[in-house]
Amino acid sequence: MATHQPRTRKTRPVPTPLPKAELHLHIEGTLEPELAFTLAERNDITLPHPTIDALRAAYSFTDLQSFLNLYYELMAVLRTEADFTDLAEAYLTRAAAQGVRHAEIFFDPQAHTSRGVSLDTVVNGLGAALDTSLERHGISTHLILCFLRDRPATEALATLHAARPHLHRISTVGLDSAELGHPPEKFTHVFDTARALGLRCVAHAGEEGPASYIWQALNLLKVERVDHGIRCLEDPELTAHLAATQTPLTVCPLSNVRLRAVNTLADHPLPALMDAGLLVTVNSDDPAYFGGYVHDNYEALRHRLGLDETTLRQLARNSFTAAFLDPRRRDELIAQLDAHPTP
Ligand code: ADE
Ligand code: ZN
Fold this sequence. Notes:
Blueprint: E1 20-26, H1 33-42, H2 52-57, H3 64-74, H4 81-97, E2 100-107, H5 109-113, H6 119-131, H7 133-137, E3 140-148, H8 153-162, E4 170-176, H9 188-196, E5 200-205, H10 211-219, E6 225-228, H11 236-245, E7 249-251, H12 253-258, H13 270-275, E8 280-282, H14 287-290, H15 294-304, H16 309-322, H17 327-339
Parallel strand pairs: 1-2, 2-3, 3-4, 4-5, 5-6, 6-7, 7-8
The structure holds adenine and zinc ion.
């Protein structure tokens, strides 16, 4: 009688994630629905969506503002230091599995202080997770304090001053939230003050806003990196300038699709940005909302935009080049990337 051998299923080897840095990640945007419900229960808060599935069903966005409405609403569950520690710890655990070796992490203090949660609670809570991140997850970290551009500049300045006791934990300031109608020039004095305090500067520009906002971020806010920046391609002089100065762009492909800055991933301008000689990096932005963490963005570029292994490795290398790393750690991480086996 013929014996039936169990069929061995041929599976494609799953490539282990490339070592990389993540330079555009809003910690509040890593709040997964499951954690949101856990924290809501812990803090006796009723969420407007009765179940995890109902909440996930709300993740269908038409533009940046439609996302921001939910993003700010869900932050209500973040109240105590432990909540912020748990949020950051959950991100770091996921990031490590995605090959992240260094993360420069945005947070939005005004979104918390405006709800009665103190800056001490936010920074100490995040800090408790970040302090052990290298040891526990092999991830070095920086914190980037973002100002909400749809709030007055006076409030941003007050936030900066309130953050002064925490500056040992904060390397950089950034600018985020609703872009259209809120040009960088509004924050020139705030960024001047931040630089005088020894902080580095980045800003979201050219996500939904025009190329002129990118010029303002460069010339007035004196940013060292541009977050998103994809609309630079509408201005050839700007594109040439960004290429000549090798000013990094922190591009977020899955975010751009979910927020309809681009129609589909196949239409994404990332290859055009690279062809123009720009220093492009790939990042996840708000991964809990946009369908993937940073390695998922790399894999989406591989499968839906056809990027080859060499290009993906170049993007990972760019992430270390663009990071605010000390040279020894940068060299160590680039060596890890170079030693990483090709699938
Ligand atoms: N805050 C969180 N995510 C953002 C994004 N993609 N653009 C602007 N502000 C944000
Ligand atoms: Zn962002």
